[in-house]
Amino acid sequence: MFHALVVFQSTYDRCPLELVRCIKHILYTEQRLIREATNSSSPVGGMMDSMSQKYQQINQAFEELRLLTQDTENDLRKLQHNQEYFIIQYQESLRIQAQLSSLAALPPSDRQLREPALLSKRATVEAWLTREANTLQKYRLDLAEKHQKTLQLLRKQQTIILDDELIQWKRRQQLAGNGGPPEGGLDILQSWCEKLAETIWQNRQQIRRAEHLRQQLPIPGPIEELLNELNSTITDIISALVT
């Protein structure tokens, strides 16, 4: 022991900074070895890495859901604006038709003077209405398809959280009670469920607004059946979350 002390003093007495560098290197090496053992060799470290990766995937899916929901919100507003303008033009066509009908009470000379312009105007408005009706139908179908995509991802996300993560959290809780690793945060599950509820509610309200627009201006096509399917799907998703 005395010999080791003499060697230590003779080595570092004149170079104290070298001693500091040596100790720092030893501490850094120990920390690195512990970190590597925790992340790769330790079952707890491996489990925490796996959980972190899954949590990141879940959060990424929530971000995708947020963007999809914002996109359908923008499309819904555009659809509503276009439909309101369509209704205005439809009312204009009715007004033109009423003016044409009133010409029957005028003398033939007056009727011939005013009728051509009204007929031309009616033809222009009716052609626009036909084109716009097809455009509105396309907007409705595109919106319904986007809602289908959102609900598919929403159902998948809900299944992962409720059928996978919640059950695994309960398992980790049991292991923690028996001296196993910590069970993980219940607050994270609660946060996910709150995000699910918020996203579900936003999409449900959007689908209801799309249904209201369809009822306000019925256009023959498959949109009614699609909206019924969307309503059924979102109801099932809500029921699963509440249960």
From TrEMBL:
What CDD domains does this protein map onto? STAT5_CCD
Under the heading SUPFAM superfamilies, the entry gives:
STAT
Q: Please state every residue range assigned to the domain named STAT transcription factor all-alpha.
A: 60-238
Please state what the protein is called.
Signal transducer and activator of transcription 5A
Respond yes or no to whether keyword Phosphoprotein is given for this record.
Answer: no
Q: Where is the signal peptide?
A: none
Coiled coil spans: 48-82
User: By its UniProt entry, which Pfam families does this protein fall under?
Assistant: STAT_alpha
* Gene3D superfamilies listed in its UniProt record: STAT transcription factor, all-alpha domain
Q: Which top-level group of life is the source organism from? A: Eukaryota
